[in-house]
Amino acid sequence: MNHTPRMKVTDHTRWVVIDMLRGNYSKRAIQHWQEASLLLGLSEYLKQHDDQAVKREVWSFLDSRFDSSGDWIEKPEYVDGAILAYAVMKLEFIDLEHYRAAFELTWRMIEAHIGEDSTIMYRTFMKDYRYVDTIGFVCPFLVSYGIKYNKPECIDLAYRQIKQYELHGMLEDRHIPCHAYQIGDLMPLGIYGWGRGLGWYALGLIDSWLELPAGHKYKASLEESIKGFATAVISLQQANGGWNWTVTRRECRSDSSATAALGWFLLNASRVPGLTQICLNHADKAIHYLAGVTRRNGAVDFSQGDTKDIGAYSTLFNIMPFTQGLCVRMMHSNIVRSRIHS
């Protein structure tokens, strides 16, 4: 986590020094969700293990991102930063109140991205588009922050973001999101069935639901969304246990990043009455796929590279910290551990 590989913006495999000189090799926003996933994985691990060496590394990471007052050293400009703030909020061994300034700034940054339709923009300079990525970036943070600091408007915003996407960004009767949609004419953009896009929706939906307390006014509605999406996800899983980078095409190669995100979703969707056994069975298949593409050094291989634009997807499949963190998170969850021990 303290030496996170830089994720490339381009697919160039030669003359990459030119990209570096031009500032096109990597972007800080991409690193936020890589680091966030690793931190989420380690926080799940630390729930089960009092590992002082790992805690020291986490403290080192926090000290490199936050100042002595608990505020960001480098303030996030984009919504990608919200998932990193959420990952910090999931650490159980730190004083979260110390980082309240950073959480409040993250909320103000998200507020600045609210568009004319009262949903959150991916970028303020792309105000007419709503991306599926944004659901995974912001919704779990908004719910967690809203619950902890009694800000119901944050929870309302997260719920609205999910439900508006379901209304305008889903393939009718299929529960498969497109990459984005345009808020004016509500036209879909990109493709329906981009694997990591399903993963972003899955993470935003399931983690938001998990953060809500029992009996909350939005809990049952999100549970219905989980049921519909779980049915779609299960029907699109390949025989090898993975999901392809375009989930609706058998000819595409499997994407470990999509598989890790959707595996985490199904694992936790098993908490919903009526879904337990089928979701656990298909989560197991995802875990076996991911084990099969893990190198001997522990690195999970074959994740699709960073997306270039709406409809412009990477052709490179390699190691991705985002995938690594989700796999660690999955394997150290209470559900998996209880099944292994039984």
UniProtKB/TrEMBL annotation:
<dbReference type="Pfam" id="PF07470">
    <property type="entry name" value="Glyco_hydro_88"/>
</dbReference>
<dbReference type="InterPro" id="IPR052043">
    <property type="entry name" value="PolySaccharide_Degr_Enz"/>
</dbReference>
<keyword id="KW-0378">Hydrolase</keyword>
<dbReference type="InterPro" id="IPR010905">
    <property type="entry name" value="Glyco_hydro_88"/>
</dbReference>
<dbReference type="InterPro" id="IPR012341">
    <property type="entry name" value="6hp_glycosidase-like_sf"/>
</dbReference>
<dbReference type="InterPro" id="IPR008928">
    <property type="entry name" value="6-hairpin_glycosidase_sf"/>
</dbReference>
<dbReference type="GO" id="GO:0016787">
    <property type="term" value="F:hydrolase activity"/>
</dbReference>
<protein>
    <submittedName>
        <fullName>Glycoside hydrolase family 88 protein</fullName>
    </submittedName>
</protein>
